[in-house]
Amino acid sequence: MASHARWKLARDGKAAQGIAEDPEVERRREEISLAFDLGQAVYDRRVALGLS
Length: 52
Description:
The protein is an all-alpha fold. 75% of the residues lie in helices and 0% in strands.
């Protein structure tokens, strides 16, 4: 199994060659990123309030 760094380098290499990702994959990647950001914001706020 490829490490995250190798996978990201491969993805970036394809993008540099003009090979685009499937729009569905790109949409899901954005959803995952937003979900992670929301979770991180909730965690950070809970820590700031002394709840976590």
